[in-house]
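Obj: model holo form, ligand = guanosine-5'-monophosphate.
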Amino acid sequence: MEALKQRILEEGIVLSDQVLKLDAILNHQIDPKLTTVMGKELAARFRDQQVTKIMTVESSGIPIAFVVAAELGVPLVFARRKKTLVGDTETYSERVPSFTKGIVTDIMVSRQFLHADDRILFIDDIIANGDAARGLIKIIERAGATLVGMGVVVEKCFQHGASSIREQGVRLEALVKIKSLEDGKVQFQE
Ligand code: 5GP
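Output (holo structure tokens):
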């Protein structure tokens, strides 16, 4: 997606070799036009997969996941980040390390909104080490639902998350792939 690459070059801030700040378009401010174009593109890639539900993790995945859900005409369920009650039988929960915050959080999904006959498309903003994705994938598996694939706005190829998810046999589509953030510069993978 050339338009997205351009916006990343113009508005992204390279904080280190590992972290790209995308507050201007993804993680703080949302551009509805760009988000709509991105969501439509991800929806198109999975349109033939009989998706019954979009899932994401709060909060940065929600805007684009909403567009994908609207395009495919299915509900969106976002995993909440919150402390789960020990022994809570009403929810699925997983403990995941947070890449940007450096802490461990619980993500949870109510059993009411995830069923064994669901075909799930998982949408997220950025994949780095893949911890958030692995947590949600475990929840989907525990519910007995089918994961048809995962769509992300940005894949950071120099971290192992996306490759390890693909090795699990999951189809993962990224709108842009970033090869490196070295020397303060964003290098895209073609
Ligand atoms: P992971 O669990 O794959 O390591 O990290 C996923 C989450 O961490 C993403 O949903 C994203 O919000 C955040 N994240 C990871 N890397 C970056 C980054 O380089 N920049 C920003 N802004 N967020 C990131």
